Amino acid sequence: MNEFISEFGIDWKLFLSQLVNFGIILIVLWFFVYKPVLKVLKDRNKKIKEGLDKADEADVRLKEIDVIGKGKIKEAETASINIIKATENKAKVLGEVLQKKLEENQLKMQKDLQESYKRQEEQAKELVLKNAVLLVKRTIIKTVELKPEAVDDALIKKAVEGIKHE
After folding, report:
1. pTM summary value
2. Which of 13, 39, 61, 76 gives the lowest tally of CB atoms within 10 Å of its CB?
3. What are the structural domain ranges in the chain?
């Protein structure tokens, strides 16, 4: 076997020393390069995984918030529709109340106008009666001044005409 190794030009002492050197370099690289690089890669993978997990969690929360937001929007729309309906109902009731008050005021004004007309009519009647009394009184005075046997229609007319011109 020595011959076989020597035919290829391999010195087994040199080969053994190189093998030891390679082992030492391998151990040094293993402890000072491979393990720290492996640790950095593991830490980086861990951070990436945490970031992906947090992104997934954020997506889930965002979807939940979106659902909640849509629910709140629907609630707000429903509330605003209810407020509008309530306002319309209040406006309708207020319109009806105002209409009734207007009708009541119109009836009261009509009644007041009728009463005023009746008062004026009564005052006019009283004035006519008062003037009629005065007219009759003056007519009687004029007719008494004349002779009672001479009183006839023509004389009464003449007395009334005399009173008119006074």
Report:
1. 0.41
2. 13
3. 2-165
